[in-house]
Amino acid sequence: MRTNVRQMNPMNQTQGQKISQQRAEKIARNINAMDTDYQRMDDMNSWKFWNGLEKALKKKLSELSPSDIEVIKPMLKPEEAKYFNLI
């Protein structure tokens, strides 16, 4: 049976925070890169890419705890944070 090292060492995370800083930064980077006007694109390949990214990000955000989302919020651009209903 494989054990997550982060679970074994409580010093790696703060109280109530389960997301790693690296993962939070990756999610924030993807949210900030999101083209929020992709619905207006004529290019189907680009539309599919942005639509897929939006779905993946919304799924990841729905799996996070409120304290995890609070870690991500300061890293977000206001427009993208509003788009994902985070502010």
UniProtKB/TrEMBL annotation:
Source organism per UniProt: Chryseobacterium aquifrigidense
The organism's superkingdom is given as: Bacteria
Q: Please state what the protein is called.
A: Uncharacterized protein
